[in-house]
Amino acid sequence: MSERIDMTITNNEMDTFFEPRGVAIVGARHSPGFGYGIPLVLKREGWEDRIYLVNPKGGELHGLPVYAKIAEVPDPVDLAIVIVPAQLTPGVMEEIGQRGIGHVILETAGFAEVGEEGRALQDKVKAVATRFGIRVIGPNCVGVVNAANRFTTVEVLPEALRQGSTAIIAQSGVFGNVLLDLLPFYGLFISKAATLGNRMDVNECDMLEYFHKDPSTRVIMMYLEGAAEGRRLLKTLAKVTCDKPVLVLKSGRTSAGRAATASHTASLSGEDQLYDSLFYQTGAIRVDTLEGLVEMARAFSTQPLPRGNRLGIVTGSGSLGVMATDAAVNAGLTVPPLSPATVDFMRRETPGWMNVRNPLDVGPSNQFARGLEALLRDPGIDMVLAITIIPHAVFREFRQLGLTANIWFGDIAYIREQAPEKPLAICAVGNPELVEDVRNISGPRVPVFISPEPAAKALASLFRYRNWRIRTGTCPA
Questions:
Q1: CA–CA separation, 324 vs 310, rounded Å?
Q2: pLDDT average, residue stretch 191-210
Q3: pLDDT at site 237
């Protein structure tokens, strides 16, 4: 974990990266590439009157004028997106500084991540930025996204700009792009995103502090290869997680992985046990996979924190109930007996063959919705996992009749609204058609998983995070 001595960027300074008054795109081009596609995306999203294309050849691109020099770009312009060959960037930064532009997103690669020659070039660019007081994201990144004003410095699909409450910090530009493409499929939408690349100036601590104060952000997802400032990261995470959960996918667990990070974003990833300790001390939630990062984000962005670790399970399959129980207990949850009132309530209408206990296996009894309601009301249950399953041949027959999954499982979105204080996760097991139908009847405020183990782990993480906040005195018991 290397250290640097730099002024912490303020939220007012950071705002310009996400809410610029005018943007110079230096390196706009007529051939395929970022310099061709980014102006098109910004034009599509309503930024046509605030973007200024720069290329020495001048002319016109996408119906917009192209300025031959940065000095010719009219006011107001306070952000430059730089997409030029690496060797040209020191001169371009000089021109940007002389023009009075104070913020740069340097998307060009070919700096410290490629070796000593690239590192020397990066140092030269940083010296120019320091002399002019320019704040820089990058190099070797794809910049930022702000869903609120639909500003983006990377080519994204329109659905990725639907506003949500999850912020992304990604050291890797491509990884950030992957998340932007992936999250809408799971019904998860972002507030803002920032990819940092080599972190010549702005780093993950700056972004954590910014998103901590950002009112549109509820949850922060972070992909990290190594810390730019280890001690500062420790202090920053401890402060941020008191108010907002931070989910971290940290790569470089193995020696081979650590070597790979050095050639990717010039990162020194350090010993993995140090990061385990750092995340444990600060209340950050570490995940092991991309899938796990997305699953945790769905849970944390939609669910309240539980009051305890007592899990209620309602399922249409006894085997899946057992699997969920094992996963829950291994993750630190308990699966207690149901309260006498819940048992009495269920026995009034359940068939004699059905065992009324926790997990509550309703089988083909048509009692799934009733069981879900009962567990959400049970005072001895702090959170609920509901496992939906039905043979696909049966499901398809009913679909052909115009029926949906709510005939088996009830209106889950409505049931959820009756007990908003308890976390609820749904597990839809089976054909993707069933999963999609269950997502529809569950609504946007209920995460739907496709197997019980990750659902149980996500609920357990909610409990552990709540406990950490209580220990720090920032969350009421």
A1: 13
A2: 96
A3: 95
Mind listing the pLDDT tens digit for each residue in 89-111? 999 999 999 999 999 999 999 99
Dist. CA 246–CA 17, nearest whole Å: 21
According to DSSP, the residues that pair with 449 across neighbouring strands are: 427
Q: Could you state, in order of their start, the residue ranges of all structural domains in the chain?
A: 11-137, 144-302, 311-472
* Same topology between domain 11-137 and domain 144-302: yes
| Sign of the torsion formed by the C-alpha atoms of 123, 127, 130 and 134 | negative
Per-residue H/E/C for the chain = CCCCCCCCCCHHHHHHHHCCCCEEEECCCCCCCHHHHHHHHHHHCCCHHHEEEECCCCCEECCEEEECCHHHCCCCCCEEEECCCHHHHHHHHHHHHHHCCCEEEECCCCCHHHCHHHHHHHHHHHHHHHHHCCEEECCCCCCEEECCCCEECCCCCHHHHCCCCEEEEECCHHHHHHHHHHHHHHCCCEEEEEECCCCCCCCHHHHHHHHHHCCCCCEEEEEECCCCCHHHHHHHHHHHCCCCCEEEEECCCCHHHHHHHHHHHCCCCCCHHHHHHHHHHHCCEEECCHHHHHHHHHHHHHCCCCCCCEEEEEECCHHHHHHHHHHHHHCCCECCCCCHHHHHHHHCCCCCCCCCCCCEECCCCCCHHHHHHHHHHCCCCCEEEEEEECCHHHHHHHHHCCCCCHHHHCCHHHHHHCCCCCCEEEEEECCHHHHHHHHHHHCCCCCEECCHHHHHHHHHHHHHHHHHHHHHCCCCC
Look at strands 23-26 and 79-82 and give their pairing. parallel
pLDDT at 462 over 70: yes
Q: 311-472 has which fold?
A: Rossmann fold (3.40.50)
CATH of 11-137, one of 3.40.50.720, 3.40.50.880, 3.40.109.10, 3.40.190.10: 3.40.50.720
Of residues 330, 381, 377, 379, the one with CA closest to residue 358: 381
CATH number belonging to domain 144-302? 3.40.50.261
Confidence of residue 258 (pLDDT cuts 50, 70, 90): very low
| Residue 6 confidence (pLDDT) | 41
Cβ 141 vs Cβ 166: under 8 Å: no
Give 73 or 404, the one with higher predicted confidence. 73
Q: Looking at residue 474, what is its pLDDT?
A: 64
Other beta carbons within 10 angstroms of residue 389's beta carbon come to 20
Q: Is the pLDDT of residue 8 over 60?
A: no
